[in-house]
Automatic annotation (TrEMBL):
Residues 11-22 have a biased composition (Gly residues). Belongs to the prokaryotic molybdopterin-containing oxidoreductase family. Residues 640-755 form the Molybdopterin dinucleotide-binding domain. Residues 1-22, 657-678 are annotated as: Disordered. Transmembrane segments: none annotated. Pfam families: Molybdopterin, Molybdopterin_N, Molydop_binding. Residues 71-526 form the Molybdopterin oxidoreductase domain. It comes from Aminobacter aminovorans. Its cofactor is Mo-bis(molybdopterin guanine dinucleotide). The keyword Metal-binding applies. Keywords: Metal-binding, Molybdenum, Oxidoreductase. This is Biotin/methionine sulfoxide reductase. Its EC number is 1.-.-.-.
């Protein structure tokens, strides 16, 4: 357990775990929180930042992780690649690795990059390299690899959007305006605390999720804000398949909905409002466009099918009475609609995002403090906070002259079908022919869907180079594996655009084995390709930190704010940055004066009907939000929904080998939760090992029975490292519990082509066979892990 901040030693200035070097604790930062750590050469201790009211226990993964045997100690080359040279090879994932010196690794990687550059050009190089890597503004792996490819290769094929918000980041600009503005300058936790009467959270606002924020976070405020709002009398309604998606402190009422049907529920609410005249007609007339066409659909004037509460009930499994009561409770109050990222990480994921906006518009609260629509509030720590008034230090990636890109989750499609065409955001595009890939800071064998298919896709390239700190599923598919340092082993600056603390991240421990910083790896490789000076600009890491800090310091000076020089910042306990006011952003300004503050949409208003989207002519995303039944719904051989959501005890697959993550497992397996009634029908008892399976694959897990799940729903978090028993088998079995062997690799729609991995359908049975060992952490050096 981590000590609560109050129990910790020394809360005074400069003499404690916040940053002071007393007790040997050194300040550091991570995506899950600012903390400090002490390494005595054998044991690592961590403590949370003293100013954090609600620290995240994920920092407890560090102690066991730092020197874990899953870390990569020396550069490695896949045996098949070493013996046969570059080329498509389905042995990736099953081969063993040969350790080589850094000199040899740089020579092999550098020559291969030169071959690609000379023979095929930079458009044959995929450098999307999606992934979260670690906090730290300089050693941000994606920035490092992009800068390297731009300067040393002449560019690369990039990827756009994210696995997080694949559908919403494409549709929100069409219907409301800038995605960042909508999500980061809108309703805040402070407003909810004092203003909101009722929050309807589609997909909840789980603390496990909001306690993570890319770049670092010094204050976890969500639990306290919900607790105080609830005590003041604010009602929280959780719409979702799992009851613990809102914390106990919110005192939430739970509406268990069938997964993937929220859009129908929203329609039932809108229909109820309209049919009783409770929709805010002046608001709709003044601030939206296309309501009439949408209303005709809602009321059934188009298709003879009114989307009323009874209709919605049949689809969602929520009683019509509950829908009508909820619509009435929302009317005339300061209401807030939130929609978690999770809802749009599914087939037709654009629809709940758009329908949520239509529901909020009908309620007329958009732009009021604590009211309206806050897409994704609570899904991650970025949202509901104040923004810093000064820019963050940022490592420049430089220019990529290659125009071609893919929507990020279409990676397997690209590799398997080069040259074939697809639709994206109104355009017909074609997939490039990629020969080589460079990945740093991401784990596609964690994040992508249908891993058996992904493996075939990764078998197509000539060469995959990966910088990793540990033997992840992706490292095990690479041809050249370059070991990088873990965040604790290097210096950096931690900061995020809406956390007020800029953190001098100190080096806590020396690098393991021969691991090097990504920056040093890319500097060497750039040298091999004749671009060292361009890449490094002659700076050491410390000189880069100083150089990057200058941007923030300069902005502080021009705001007449305290602006310590780098040395003072570096010796300090973290620099407090000035923040912008909590002013409701573009929606507040738009409400106050729509003519002088139009939204950046074609009409300047909230687009309930979008001429633009209509003109794209996509059947799976027409001109206004609609209910579209999913193609994949429970059936005889896969009667259960599987919710594959974010893990509470780690960030994605990161530090899955750490203690906190390991302690959450049972018999070393990921824990899947299911309803006792579903378990009884299958003679499954709590603690049994079960096999989750469908037509794409299977995984083992330990089962926990839990009445907080809707019947018919199974939940397993992502992040247990891919541990396939036999990759060449007809159906791949992961013995550890990685749900992406089961999920389907299809885009959300032709509009956004986002990731749809959150939901799938499965069957589940007790596993009575001999339980295979976990080999996911065994280094495949000298012999394959399995
Ligand atoms: N089924 C299903 N799948 C999903 C989701 C889901 O809901 N369901 N969610 C999706 C979402 S929202 C996301 S964002 C993705 C996340 O997918 P990823 O971002 O790929 O997942 P991470 O485990 O964070 O991968 C980061 C990798 O970077 C490595 N790393 C850390 N620091 C460094 C560094 O300094 N240098 C280098 N070179 N490497 C480093 C870590 O060891 C780790 O392997 O997963 C997606 N996948
Ligand atoms: N601890 C931890 N926190 C994280 C992350 C992590 O890996 N670990 N990842 C971070 C990242 S990168 C992101 S993008 C965010 C992701 O934020 P989200 O994608 O919103 O997070 P999830 O936990 O995947 O899903 C939230 C909940 O949505 C519910 N849900 C799923 N399908 C449906 C549905 O059809 N309808 C309704 N009403 N509810 C549904 C599930 O019960 C699930 O628990 O989380 C961030 N926070
Ligand atoms: Mo994400």
């Amino acid at each position: 357990m981590i000590a609560s901040p109050r129990e910790k030693v020394g809360m005074g200035h400069g003499d404690n775990g916040q940053g002071g070097r007393d007790n040997g604790f050194l300040l550091h930062s991570s995506h899950w929180g600012v903390f400090s750590a002490r390494w005595d050469g054998e044991k690592l201790s961590v403590q949370p930042y003293a100013g954090d009211p609600d620290p995240n226990q994920i920092i407890e993964n560090f102690p066991e992780a730092l020197r874990h045997s899953a870390r990569i100690k020396r550069p490695c080359i896949r045996r098949g690649w070493l013996e046969n040279g570059p080329g498509p090879d389905l042995r990736r994932g099953t081969d063993d690795y040969v350790e080589v010196s850094w000199k040899e690794a740089i020579r092999l990687a550098g020559n291969e990059l030169l071959r690609i550059r000379t023979d095929f050009g930079p458009a044959a190089m995929f450098g999307g390299s999606y992934g979260w890597s670690s906090a730290g503004r300089f050693h941000h792996a994606q920035s490092q690899v992009h800068r390297f490819l731009n300067l040393a290769m002449g560019g690369y094929i990039r990827s756009v959007n994210s696995y997080s918000a694949g559908a919403s980041s494409v549709i929100i600009p069409h219907i409301i305006g800038n995605f960042e503005n909508h999500t980061k300058r809108n309703v805040s936790w402070a407003q909810i605390e004092t203003e909101t009467d009722i929050v309807v959270a589609f997909g909840g606002m789980a603390l496990k999720n909001s306690m993570v924020s890319g770049g670092g976070i010094s204050e976890h405020v969500e639990r306290g804000a919900m607790e105080r709002a609830h005590k003041r009398g604010c009602r929280f309604i959780l719409i979702g398949p799992i009851q613990d998606d809102l914390p106990a402190e919110a005192g939430a009422e739970w509406v268990p909905v069938i997964p993937g049907t929220d859009t129908a529920l929203m329609l039932g609410l809108i229909h109820t409002l309209v049919s009783t005249g409770l929709h805010d007609q002046p608001f709709l007339a003044r601030y939206t466009t296309g309501w009439d066409r949408f209303e005709a659909y809602v009321m059934g004037r188009v298709d003879g099918l009114p989307k009323d509460a009874a209709w919605a009930s049949g689809i969602t499994g929520v009683a019509a009475k509950t829908i009508i009561e909820l619509a009435n409770a929302l009317h005339g109050r300061r209401s807030l609609i939130t929609v978690a990222h999770a809802l749009q990480r599914a087939e037709h994921g654009e629809q709940p995002v758009w329908m949520g906006a239509a529901l909020a518009a009908a309620l007329g609260q958009m732009g009021l403090p604590g009211g309206g629509y806050a897409y994704a509030l609570g899904a991650i720590g970025y949202y509901g906070r104040r923004n810093n008034a000064v820019p963050m230090p940022t490592f420049p990636q430089e220019r990529n002259p290659i125009q071609e890109f893919i929507p990020v989750a279409r990676i397997a499609d690209m590799l398997l079908n080069p040259g074939s065409s697809y639709r994206y955001n109104g355009e017909t595009r074609s997939y490039p022919r990629v020969r080589a890939m460079y990945w740093a800071g991401g784990n596609p064998f964690h994040h992508h869907q249908d891993l058996a298919r992904l493996r075939k896709a990764f078998g197509q390239v000539d060469t995959l180079i990966v910088n990793e700190m540990a033997w992840t599923g992706t490292a095990r598919h690479a041809d050249i594996v370059l070991p990088c340092t873990m965040t604790l082993e290097r210096e950096d600056i931690g900061g995020s655009s809406n956390d007020p603390l800029l953190v001098p991240m100190r080096r806590v421990a020396p690098p393991l084995g021969e691991a090097r910083d990504d920056y040093d790896i890319f500097s060497e490789l750039a040298g091999h390709l004749g671009a060292r000076e361009a890449f490094t600009e002659g700076r050491t890491t410390r000189q880069w930190l100083e150089h990057l800090y200058e941007r923030t310091r300069g902005a502080l000076v021009s705001l007449d704010q305290p602006a310590p020089d780098f040395e003072e910042f570096w010796q300090g306990d973290g620099l407090r940055l000035p923040q912008e006011p909590d002013d409701g952003g573009q929606l507040r300004a738009f409400r106050a004066d729509p003519s002088s503050h139009p939204l950046p949409t074609p009409s300047g208003r909230i687009e309930i009907f979008s001429e633009t989207i209509e003109s794209f002519g996509e059947r799976d995303c027409p001109g206004h939000p609609v209910w579209l039944p999913p193609q994949e719904a429970p059936k005889a051989d896969a009667p259960l929904y599987l919710v594959a959501n974010q893990p509470a005890t780690r960030l994605h697959s990161q530090l899955d080998f750490g203690g906190h993550s390991a302690r959450s497992k049972r018999q070393g397996r990921e824990v899947a939760r299911m309803h006792p009634a579903d378990a009884a029908e299958r003679s499954i008892a709590d603690g049994d090992i079960v096999r989750l399976f469908n037509q794409r694959g299977a995984c083992l897990a330990s089962v926990r029975l839990d009445e907080r799940l809707r019947k018919g729903v199974v939940q397993i978090p992502t992040g247990a490292w891919f541990d396939p028993l036999d990759l060449n088998a007809e159906s791949v079995l992961c013995v550890h519990g990685n749900p992406n062997v089961l999920t389907r690799d299809v885009g959300t729609s032709a509009l956004a082509q986002g990731c749809s991995g959150q939901l799938t359908i499965i069957e589940i049975e007790r596993f009575d066979g001999i339980l295979p060992d976990i080999r996911a952490y065994d280094p495949p050096v000298g012999r394959p892990a399995r």
